[in-house]
Amino acid sequence: MVEQVVPAVGPGGTPAADTAAGDRAALVAVARATLDGNWEHDHTVPSRTLYPHQWSWDSAFIAIGWAHLRPERAWAELTSLFDAQWRDGRVPHIVFNPVVADDAYFPGPAFWATTSVPGTPRTATSGLVQPPVHALAAWHAYRRAPSEPARAALGRLYPRLVAQQHYLSSHRDVGGAGLASIVHPWESGLDNSPAWDEPLAAVPTEAAVLRAYRRRDIVHAAAAHRPTDLDYARYVAIVTAYRATGYRDEQLADRHPFLVECPLFNAAMGAAESALAHIAREIGADPGPHRQRAAAITTALVNRLYDPTTGTFHARDLRTGRLTPARTVLGLTPLILPDLPTTQVEAILVEAGSPRFGLAARMTRPLPSHDRTAVDFEPLRYWRGPSWMNINWLVRYGLLAHGHPRLAAGLGASMIELAATAGCHEYFHPDTGAGLGSPAFSWTAALLLDLLAEV
Fold first, then answer.
1. Distances 453 to 2, 24, 105, 295, 449 between C-alpha atoms, Å
2. How does DSSP classify residue 370?
């Protein structure tokens, strides 16, 4: 892939092959330094500025990168996260480092108040979850660096991954159709995506609620690049409602103000079952039930979230029963499902290749997080336009799974070029490629390493 983004002759007449090798070595060194700098005794922080604790799906992507450098850290990363798993099987989206000051991140451990909730670990955590990409990451990391210690670690992790899936498929199937519901935009990973605008608008709150709190994110990043104060007021209101129930899920359908079936979240849940089938076979367990559940989730996802009129997947607001109208990168992520029907695969390719996203065999920039042609496209604001390495990695993974190596190569080359130009930032301007958010961001470095391993 590097050959597509370097000249035939390098600076000063250096042969292209030598330039490519030098560029690759320099990028590997930057990525390694980023991960080493963010390592925190048994896990990796996303960044030393904005995110000083452990985040759930960050750790999954980060483990993929560690598999290329220090495989033992890949398994430590996942193990430390699952050590904070709740008794009901949920994997919290934040595990708080007790040596970090409570006010270093908002909302901090005192706000979540989970240590007094029955069935939670002694370690302070949040009460929410994030997309279950962990089984997929574990299997990918194992394939990148197979060994007997890695197989043993995979075997120890397997029952915890199964418990995570059971929690989502039982406690969170609020709609009763075989899909998991998210109870907060943070659970999607795409916090302020336009996909949540309609469900969020119905959340009763006042912007003044934030007067009792101090946002820490806008201390480290420009406010124009982050979710708005009104977004945060609604985020706080939703958490407050969930916290008041002790984070119980039994009465979500009756009381909770935000309930959405997310395409990415459920695609990750289906892909996790497929990965668990591979893991089960590797460790001598029965892969059959995982294959059956993967097929059932894929069918439910198509039936519930695919819109044949738009030719893409949308989130479903369970409060109204309607699909939300925004055409975001979430609609492309079901490609990670290995058994996604051909009709939907082809529709996603049309959507991805349209001016809304610009996927091509040769492309200048990776996919944006939102439809470029939409009136509410914001190239600087978090998940309302910028490009993110992890979502592009997932779409590329899906392209390879469905037999589209040229498109995958084009996407991968654009991702490498982005990091080569701007560094390992949290996210990037979708047009200029400028780095946004936190510098030295861990999952960007980790997934860059994974891309470079295939060059």
1. 11, 10, 34, 31, 6
2. B
Degrees, nearest 5: CA angle 433-431-384:
100
- pLDDT in single tens digits along all 455 residues of the chain: 222 232 233 333 334 345 466 799 999 999 999 999 999 999 999 999 889 999 999 999 999 999 999 999 999 999 999 999 999 999 999 999 999 998 888 899 999 999 999 999 999 999 999 999 999 999 999 999 999 999 999 999 999 999 999 999 999 999 999 999 999 999 999 999 999 999 999 998 765 455 555 545 545 566 566 677 788 889 999 999 999 999 999 989 998 999 999 999 999 999 999 999 999 999 999 999 999 999 999 999 999 999 999 999 999 999 999 999 999 999 999 999 999 999 999 999 999 999 999 999 999 999 999 999 999 999 999 999 999 999 999 999 999 999 999 999 999 999 999 999 999 999 999 999 999 999 999 999 999 999 999 87
Q: Record the tokens describing residue 162, joined without a space.
A: 């199964």
CA 127 – CA 114 distance, rounded (Å): 7
Gap between the Cα atoms of 247 and 171, Å rounded: 11
Cα distance between residue 264 and residue 242, in whole Å: 22
Neighbouring CB atoms inside 10 A of 205's CB total: 19
Give the residue among 251, 271, 268, 267 at the shortest CA–CA distance from 259. Answer: 251
Question: CB neighbours of 262 closer than 8 A, spacing ≥ 6?
Answer: 131, 182, 187, 188, 195, 315, 330
Active site residues: 191, 426
Distances (CA, A) of 105 to 93, 102, 271, 317: 14, 7, 32, 30
How many angstroms separate the CA atoms of 47 and 63, rounded? 15
- 394, 412 contact by CB (below 8 A): no
Question: What are 191's two structure tokens?
Answer: 């916090």
Cα–Cα distance for residue pair 427/429, rounded to 1 Å: 7
DSSP type of residue 175: T
Length of the chain: 455
Catalogue all structural domains in the chain, each as residue range(s) with its CATH number. Answer: 2-452 (1.50.10.10)
| 95 bridge partner residues | 54, 125
How many Cβ atoms are within 10 Å of 147's Cβ, its own excluded?
11
Confirm if 329 and 373 have CB atoms less than 8 A apart. no
Residue with tokens 């050590």: 83
Token pair for 210:
């934030």
What stretches of 229-307 adopt beta strand conformation (E)?
260-261, 306-307
Q: Does the predicted model carry a pTM greater than 0.70?
A: yes
Q: Would you state the structure tokens that stand for residue 305, as one six-digit string?
A: 């979230």
